[in-house]
Amino acid sequence: MEKTVLAGASYSNRKFFMDNKFSSLPEPVKKEIKSLCVLSAERLMSVFLMGFNADGEIYFEILPEENFAQADDIGAEYVMSEIRRDKAELLKALKLWYIIFKDGKL
Questions:
Q1: Where are the alpha helices (DSSP H) in the chain?
Q2: Does residue 28 come out as left (phi exceeding 0), alpha (psi in the -120 to 50 range) or beta?
Q3: Distance between CA 51 and CA 71 in Å, rounded?
Q4: What is the spatial distance between Cα 59 and Cα 53, in angstroms, rounded to a whole number?
Q5: For the purposes of burial, counting CB atoms within 10 Å of the CB of 87, is it exposed (0-12), middle (13-18) or buried (19 or more)?
Q6: Alpha carbon 33 to chain centroid distance?
Q7: Mean pLDDT of successive 10-residue segments in the chain (106 residues)?
């Protein structure tokens, strides 16, 4: 399945990335995405990615960092379900935005 990475953060490198294709998102939305990614990477001590599947559904991906303990699958599921609950409006708006603009007008 085709995936498009929207943004990500690394706990060990203390870095954040947002794909330039999404530069047309409003600044408050970009700040909220940055906060979500950075805080999630810190909580999980990992690389945290979020993006879109081909159908516009938002996905989260957690990649373990080299110098840290093995990934905590239960903790990761908890964090992702918490995001889906607490950020439901943001995720719904992002999905709608992506579906409308994914035809190359990003």
A1: 27-44, 73-86, 88-101
A2: alpha
A3: 20
A4: 7
A5: middle
A6: 7
A7: 91 93 92 95 91 91 71 73 92 91 62
CA atoms 64, 68, 71, 72: torsion sign: negative
Residue 104 in tokens: 């190359």
Q: What are 9's strand-pairing partners?
A: 16, 48
**What is the predicted pLDDT for the residue at 71?**
54
Residues 7-41 as b/e (b if ≥16 CB within 10 A, e otherwise) read bbbbbeeeebebeeebeebeeeebeebeebbbebb
User: Distance between alpha carbon 51 and the CA centroid of its chain, in Å?
Assistant: 6
pLDDT of residue 59: 94
Report the predicted TM-score, pTM, of the whole model to 2 decimal places: 0.84
**Rounded to whole angstroms, how far apart are CA atoms 56 and 38?**
22
